[in-house]
Amino acid sequence: MDMLSDVAAFIRAGRPTSLRVSWRAPWGVSFRASPGSAGFQVVLRGSCWFVPKEGEPVPLSVGDLVFLPHGDSFGLTDDPAGPLVESDCGAHFGLFASAGFGGTGAETVILSCCYQLAPDRTHPILGALPGVIHLPSTLGSHQELRAAVELLAGEIDNPRPGTDTVVSSLLDMLQLYVLRAYFETQDEPCTLSGWAAALADPAIGRALDAIHLDPARRWTVESLGAHAGLSRAGFARRFTGLVGQPPLAYLTWWRLMSAARMLRDSDASVAEVAERVGYGSEFAFGNAFKREFGVAPGRFRRQVAVA
Q1: Which CATH superfamily hosts domain 3-184?
Q2: Which of 17, 21, 178, 248 has a 20 to 30 A CA-CA distance from 159?
Q3: Is the pTM of this model over 0.85?
Q4: Which homologous superfamily does the CATH classification assign to the domain defined by 249-306?
């Protein structure tokens, strides 16, 4: 996997959910904060206002998408001056579902999607995102994103054999398209910083992809620098400045995060997991894992199995 695909798959936990809601004026709802989750709101028909936790209401029209990567509280309404009532939409969520609320006036249709984040798999790229990402529907941009939304809405409107798998896959695609669109719409490369700059930097991007493609390889700063096309010292400075930690520190962290995923999701033995993520001995792997997670790999597996 390339780095962004790997991260998108890594941070999720459980099955995603979605709900197509028909709101009729007058209406106004507030949604409580949901730590440990991320979600999308996409306007399919009509228009409304997005009310962030902080700041002024934002007008939304057909095709506009709002992504909340940290599960912050927010509101949606047909009138920013009107009251907001706490939503009870949560009871209607499923892998794909539809519902209607509000009065008898003009209709606004919104696609709401949500997925849980794995608490032991938080990647720093997610922490670097703002609380609210608004991607307006602009003619000629984000065509893949709009296509995924249209396909998702169609499947929810008209469930058929295989819809369960299609909807789950489209929600995964939507998340990835949103992350890609956000990073692509940032400022010019010369003014970027942090993970946005790391993903926009071809050399650092190649090194990150190499780490995620083959974390078990015996990478050194020199070999990663050569893969990136930079000198050892120049690569180390650039990587550390953009990613926020030295190359081998990030490599170690990613190996252990990958190991935790294997312990959670596979039947591979601890020794097999250690080998797959690049540790020469189960003992060395166990010590490194315990430093990161506070428990030995075997105990970690038993804990997540009963969680």
Answers
A1: Regulatory protein AraC (2.60.120.280)
A2: 178
A3: no
A4: Homeodomain-like (1.10.10.60)
